Amino acid sequence: MFIDKAKIFVKSGDGGDGAISFRREKYVALGGPDGGDGGNGGNVTLVADRNLTTLLDFTYRRKYVAESGQNGMGSKCYGKKGEDLYIKVPMGTVIRDTETNKIMVDLAHDGDSYTVAKGGKGGKGNFHFTTPTRQAPNFAEPGMPGEEREITLEIKLLADVGLLGFPNVGKSTLLSRVSKAKPKIANYHFTTLKPNLGVVKVEGVPAFVMADIPGIIEGASEGVGLGFDFLRHIERTRLLIHVVDISGIEGRDPIGDFKKINEELKNYNVKLWDRPQIVAANKSDMLYDEEVFENFKNELNKMGYDKIFKISAATNEGVSDLIKEAARILSTIPVKDLEIDPEEMYIEEDKKFTYDIRVEDGVYIIEGSFVDRLLRSVNVNDPDSLRYFHKVLKSKGIMDELKELGIEDGDLVRLNDFEFEFLL
């Protein structure tokens, strides 16, 4: 089964909490604090693997969570770092942030990797908070939470040559003739449902990968049929072979079909329309009027296409010359990574702890991730810890902001479930 798109949830490990500990050795005077730091959480990293071809595994497992860091311990022992989680994906996988639909990275080559969720930083133990006036701090720093997000994995095939054309024009037959690929072949009047890839090896010709691209029908650029789902598979191909049924036995107009397919490419992405094309006029074994091919060739010459081959995939007529010309053109086209519009790129924002202040019924309410983290690190029943709490509020500018909002002596300030009276 070929699965080329999947959504998964990833979460990096939380950082371990710093320890609150004091030395208790029998013969050590004035032992002091010795709480160690918490370990960092594990990262979630995606790695491109040439041995994978589909995203099938991600249909059975959609949640990936890295290991959290261990909490710090006494004797200044640091907590163990959480194990990083490595997720293997096929080469050619594009990673998108699902929320914004922006591209985070293109894992085009074997071994390419990208960290989609960074582990939370471990918190500092209480020995970090000693000062000349605070020699026994009874508080420590909590670990930072890990990052979590939903991402979309999307395969854009790594093929050198893409076969284009309406259904039933002979693309699958041609691919089976020049490679060991075994696509289903029959007189279908609907499109192939999945891309088929094959390695083309012809004597005297460097090997290359060819893909039978499904979904290209009239209206595909607007989502008709398989539409966008498979048009994207052409984006990596360096050369297109446009297969046209020249026989006319089904009443199709080869010139009209050729124009319609190219119009879909142009509407989808102008870079695809500008890509080099070889035209394969297929089913010539069933052509009874040679003038049909000559008229077809002349019309395409007028449109600027001069690489036109009369072939029969069923009998192998002209196929060798077609493949040799494809290999020759490929040798002149450098391999390039997928071109991504800068506006489509995801920009990582720095994670910051924030807060909001609002006044409700005379109470000054402070909320946000900054408040959650601060309260986790404070023991409100310990005088030293409480002094540290007020010092942080002052250093972060919260006290000044409260004054600007008109707070007065004795007014109540609430941070989650903790309340205190404001004193100027």
TrEMBL record:
<dbReference type="GO" id="GO:0042254">
    <property type="term" value="P:ribosome biogenesis"/>
</dbReference>
<dbReference type="GO" id="GO:0005737">
    <property type="term" value="C:cytoplasm"/>
</dbReference>
<dbReference type="GO" id="GO:0000287">
    <property type="term" value="F:magnesium ion binding"/>
</dbReference>
<feature type="binding site">
    <location>
        <begin position="165"/>
        <end position="172"/>
    </location>
    <ligand>
        <name>GTP</name>
    </ligand>
</feature>
<keyword id="KW-0378">Hydrolase</keyword>
<dbReference type="InterPro" id="IPR036726">
    <property type="entry name" value="GTP1_OBG_dom_sf"/>
</dbReference>
<feature type="domain" description="Obg">
    <location>
        <begin position="1"/>
        <end position="158"/>
    </location>
</feature>
<dbReference type="Pfam" id="PF09269">
    <property type="entry name" value="DUF1967"/>
</dbReference>
<dbReference type="InterPro" id="IPR014100">
    <property type="entry name" value="GTP-bd_Obg/CgtA"/>
</dbReference>
<dbReference type="InterPro" id="IPR006074">
    <property type="entry name" value="GTP1-OBG_CS"/>
</dbReference>
<comment type="subunit">
    <text>Monomer.</text>
</comment>
<dbReference type="GO" id="GO:0005525">
    <property type="term" value="F:GTP binding"/>
</dbReference>
<keyword id="KW-0547">Nucleotide-binding</keyword>
<feature type="binding site">
    <location>
        <begin position="190"/>
        <end position="194"/>
    </location>
    <ligand>
        <name>GTP</name>
    </ligand>
</feature>
<comment type="function">
    <text>An essential GTPase which binds GTP, GDP and possibly (p)ppGpp with moderate affinity, with high nucleotide exchange rates and a fairly low GTP hydrolysis rate. Plays a role in control of the cell cycle, stress response, ribosome biogenesis and in those bacteria that undergo differentiation, in morphogenesis control.</text>
</comment>
<keyword id="KW-0342">GTP-binding</keyword>
<feature type="domain" description="OCT">
    <location>
        <begin position="345"/>
        <end position="424"/>
    </location>
</feature>
<dbReference type="InterPro" id="IPR031167">
    <property type="entry name" value="G_OBG"/>
</dbReference>
<dbReference type="InterPro" id="IPR015349">
    <property type="entry name" value="OCT_dom"/>
</dbReference>
<keyword id="KW-0479">Metal-binding</keyword>
<dbReference type="InterPro" id="IPR006073">
    <property type="entry name" value="GTP-bd"/>
</dbReference>
<dbReference type="Pfam" id="PF01018">
    <property type="entry name" value="GTP1_OBG"/>
</dbReference>
<comment type="similarity">
    <text>Belongs to the TRAFAC class OBG-HflX-like GTPase superfamily. OBG GTPase family.</text>
</comment>
<feature type="binding site">
    <location>
        <position position="172"/>
    </location>
    <ligand>
        <name>Mg(2+)</name>
    </ligand>
</feature>
<feature type="binding site">
    <location>
        <begin position="312"/>
        <end position="314"/>
    </location>
    <ligand>
        <name>GTP</name>
    </ligand>
</feature>
<feature type="binding site">
    <location>
        <begin position="282"/>
        <end position="285"/>
    </location>
    <ligand>
        <name>GTP</name>
    </ligand>
</feature>
<protein>
    <recommendedName>
        <fullName>GTPase Obg</fullName>
        <ecNumber>3.6.5.-</ecNumber>
    </recommendedName>
</protein>
<keyword id="KW-0963">Cytoplasm</keyword>
<feature type="binding site">
    <location>
        <position position="192"/>
    </location>
    <ligand>
        <name>Mg(2+)</name>
    </ligand>
</feature>
<feature type="domain" description="OBG-type G">
    <location>
        <begin position="159"/>
        <end position="331"/>
    </location>
</feature>
<dbReference type="Pfam" id="PF01926">
    <property type="entry name" value="MMR_HSR1"/>
</dbReference>
<feature type="binding site">
    <location>
        <begin position="212"/>
        <end position="215"/>
    </location>
    <ligand>
        <name>GTP</name>
    </ligand>
</feature>
<keyword id="KW-0460">Magnesium</keyword>
<dbReference type="GO" id="GO:0003924">
    <property type="term" value="F:GTPase activity"/>
</dbReference>
<dbReference type="InterPro" id="IPR027417">
    <property type="entry name" value="P-loop_NTPase"/>
</dbReference>
<dbReference type="InterPro" id="IPR045086">
    <property type="entry name" value="OBG_GTPase"/>
</dbReference>
<dbReference type="InterPro" id="IPR036346">
    <property type="entry name" value="GTP-bd_prot_GTP1/OBG_C_sf"/>
</dbReference>
<dbReference type="InterPro" id="IPR006169">
    <property type="entry name" value="GTP1_OBG_dom"/>
</dbReference>
<dbReference type="InterPro" id="IPR005225">
    <property type="entry name" value="Small_GTP-bd"/>
</dbReference>
